[in-house]
From TrEMBL:
Signal peptide: none
GO CC terms: plasma membrane
Species for this entry: Paraconexibacter algicola
Transmembrane stretches, start-end: 44-63, 70-93, 129-150, 156-176, 197-221, 227-251, 263-281, 287-310, 322-342, 354-372
This protein's name: Major facilitator superfamily (MFS) profile domain-containing protein
């Protein structure tokens, strides 16, 4: 089990690293390609758009062929698309490469997390998912550093390294025994599961922080650039933010196993309501960087409990775990696309505080609804009821 956890953690780390690499590069691409906030938002949203389109197909592949083949497919797509991104000099090609990266990410995450959950005891589900997410957040830590390195040296050389990383991980995955049995469940089972309240609530709690992160990733980077911060400074701010989030995720995963999935989520909703409303208050790059770190810490409390919640609910609905994590991908990607794309466009048409205020309001309303009408979740027998 430990070897599998290490393998899946490494896979999601590399995938997330090349997802996060674009953040410090956004100001450079904006200057060189004459991109506004809307075009910058589209570039940032291209990856989650690929994940959105690929979410259900990746889940079907994981259910019918197994988790391991799905992971191998994801690594292959990651290698090809990242290499293309490194050599691209046109915004359309960049958008397309990021889109294919997102397709690969859908396969890697659906296959990798299903592989983990199928092998792990139910009572450790939150901790196992939290560990993998901690590694993925480590990728978020390295991504801005890699992006800053690419900006300072050669994007072609830096992004070419992904072929070596993906190849090594594919070899390790091929040598690791698979778990579970392929199960060609009809889509009717998926549709029926999505109609249940626990699944819908869990999907919303995955989408909501993704929505907010999408906005902060675009608007935060561009605001820091407007305050005079360079790519290295922007990368440093998001590096520290991801470091804090990486510490938070495994901890809240364990808390959710012991005290119920909604306990850490409620705390995160309360904190996120405040920090999102205050992100636009700082008027220096340093203070804005601190606000970005605080926002990441608050939103980071959602991921492990919400994903474990969705896995629990899917199990109760007799939905195969590959399809369960397809729903995770679908929810995350929807939030990211809306946050990065619509958030950038709305900010350009009005002000940065408008989309961020909407995100804060969504957190506040969600917290109020969960306080008034708590949802009974699948898997609560392994943890205290919220």
């Amino acid at each position: 089990m430990r070897r599998l956890v290490l393998l899946v953690s490494a896979i999601v780390l590399v995938d997330t690293m090349f997802y996060a690499v674009v953040t410090p590069l956004l100001p450079t691409y904006a200057d060189e390609l004459d991109l506004g906030k809307t075009a910058s938002g589209i570039l940032a949203a291209a990856y989650p758009a690929g994940t959105l389109i690929g979410a259900i197909p990746a889940g079907i592949v994981a259910a019918r062929l197994g988790a391991k083949p799905t992971v191998l497919l994801g690594l292959a797509l990651l290698a090809v698309s990242t290499l293309t991104f490194g050599f691209a000099g046109d915004v359309v090609v960049l958008d397309g490469a990021r889109f294919v990266q997102g397709l690969g990410g859908a396969c890697s995450w659906a296959g990798g997390l299903a592989w983990l959950v199928e092998a792990a005891p139910p009572e450790t589900r939150g901790a196992v998912i939290g560990t993998a997410l901690g590694a993925a957040i480590g990728g978020s830590l390295l991504g801005p550093v890699v992006g800053a390195l690419a900006e300072a040296t050669s994007p072609e050389a830096v992004f070419s390294s992904v072929v070596v990383l993906a190849g090594g991980l594919a070899l390790a995955a091929a040598r690791t025994p698979g778990t579970g049995r392929p199960d060609a469940q009809p889509l009717r089972v998926l549709v029926d599961a999505v109609r249940t309240a626990p699944v819908l609530v869990a999907m919303w709690l995955v989408a909501l922080p993704a929505f907010a992160f999408g906005m902060v990733g675009v608007l935060g980077a561009l605001r820091m650039d407007g305050f005079g911060a360079g790519g290295a400074a922007v990368g440093a701010a998001f590096l520290v933010a991801a470091a804090v989030e990486g510490v938070v995720s495994p901890l809240v995963g364990r808390v959710s196993d012991r005290r119920g999935r909604l306990v850490p989520v409620r705390a995160g909703l309360a904190a996120a309501t405040v920090v999102l409303a205050l992100v636009t208050v700082p008027q220096t790059a340093l203070l804005l960087g601190i606000a970005i770190v605080a926002t990441s810490a608050a939103l980071g409390t959602f991921w492990a409990p919400a994903m474990a919640m969705l896995s629990d609910a899917a199990e109760s609905a007799r939905l195969q775990q590959g399809l369960a994590f397809a729903l995770v991908n679908l929810a995350w990607a929807t939030g990211q696309v809306a946050g990065s794309g619509l958030g950038g466009g709305l900010a350009e048409a009005t002000a940065d505080g408008v989309p961020l205020g909407i995100a804060a309001l969504c957190c506040a309303v969600t917290l109020a609804v969960l306080q008034v009408r708590p949802v009974r979740l699948g898997g609560e027998s392994q943890a205290a009821a919220p």
